[in-house]
Amino acid sequence: MFDDLRGKRALVTGAFGGLGSHFAKVLAGAGVRVALAGRRIEAARPIAAQIEQDGGTACVVPMDVTSAASITDAFDAAESQLGGSMQIVVNNAGIAVTRPAAACEEHEWQSVIDVNLNGAWRVAQAAGQRMIAQGGGSIISIASILGLRVAQQVPAYAAAKAGLIHLTQALALEWARHGVRVNALAPGYIETELNRDFFASEAGQALIRRVPQRRIGQPEHLDGALLLMASDAATFMTGAVLAIDGGHLVSSL
Ligand code: NAP
Predict the structure, then answer these.
(1) Among 95, 153, 176, 188, which has the highest number of CB atoms less than 10 A from its own CB?
(2) Which fold has domain 3-242?
(3) In Å, how far from its chain's centre is CA 107?
(4) Which long-range contacts (CB under 8 A, 24 or more apart) does 73-76 make?
(5) Would you list the DSSP string of the chain?
(6) Ligand 1, atom 1: closest residue by C-alpha
(7) Tens digit of each residue's pLDDT (9 = 90 or more) over 38-69
(8) Is 157 a catalytic residue?
(9) Buried b (16+ CB within 10 A) or exposed e, 49-76
(10) pLDDT beyond 90 at 194
(11) Distance between CA 103 and CA 137 in Å, rounded?
């Protein structure tokens, strides 16, 4: 179904974290040559090595999404190491600050907006400019169900993800005629190393009971949607926002 992905090139931001490294491996497993972009280069080497060991192709490029210059350098490095421009970009880098709105500090608000919204914009613009020049591509924004419904204590995160969803649609509109598709995945709560202890706690278990499927997601639950959005199988799909959340968004009010 996704055979067209074989031999394509993709750049994944935040590729050394829980979901980003998973996305890079899934794309590589489908035959995509992958550039892993992020800050903690030392954390990236084993991920790239694992991809290569499994028969894929991966390179590591330093990228801080708060710096436009760093993003340009990362795209240049990825193109030179993978032998051409990116046909797929996964805009995944993100951070969260959990704090009651009344206590949220200016710098906390700014940092979440600067990575999750401004950073995603910088990466999408750099990707879009290059994809327009090459005649097409697929950009996948990793948003969140918190961009579609709110929860307590994450005001900046929720606002940034809502902005990212709207940005995704605005870019889809502008770039459709250039063959550039821009879509968003909106995951619900997905288990990674960072949140595993929380979901095992009483508070985490209480949260899980509010999900209609009574479970949290695993990274592999996102694989089908990721590959679909990356692939030409979704050639008529742009500006779409796909929630993958065990029904959390449709939980009873
Ligand atoms: P994670 O393990 O913390 O990974 C986040 C990644 O973003 C890290 O690799 C981090 O790199 C990178 N990053 C942060 N600031 C950056 C910057 N300025 N420049 C470049 N990279 C930066 O979190 P995750 O759970 O995998 O989340 C990945 C994405 O999925 C995020 O956008 C998150 O909002 C979204 N999401 C996650 C869930 C979930 O339940 N896990 C649900 C919905 C949406 P460093 O290691 O260098 O800091």
Answers:
(1) 188
(2) Rossmann fold (3.40.50)
(3) 23
(4) 74/11, 74/35, 74/37, 75/11, 75/126, 75/127, 75/130
(5) --GGGTT-EEEEETTTSHHHHHHHHHHHHTT-EEEEEES-HHHHHHHHHHHHHTT--EEEEE--TT-HHHHHHHHHHHHHHHTS--SEEEE---------GGG--HHHHHHHHIIIIIIHHHHHHHHHHHHHHHT-EEEEEE--GGGTS--TT-HHHHHHHHHHHHHHHHHHHHHGGGTEEEEEEEE--B--TTTHHHHHSHHHHHHHHTSTTSS-B-GGGGHHHHHHHHSGGGTT--S-EEEESTTGGG---
(6) 17
(7) 999 999 999 999 999 999 999 999 999 999 99
(8) yes
(9) eebeeeebbbbbbebbbeebebbeebbe
(10) no
(11) 41
Query: What is the number of the ligand 1 atom nearest to the C-alpha of 20?
Result: 26
| pLDDT reported for residue 190 | 97
Q: What are the tens digits of pLDDT across the range 213-228?
A: 999 999 999 999 999 9
Mean pLDDT of all residues in the chain?
A: 97
pLDDT at 193 over 90: no
Q: Ligand 1 mean position to 135 CA, how many Å?
A: 29
Domain ranges of the chain: 3-242
- Extract the tokens encoding 114: 């600067």
63 in contact with ligand 1, CB cutoff 6 A:
yes
**Could you tell me the distance, in angstroms and rounded to a whole number, from the CA of residue 251 to the centre of ligand 1?**
25
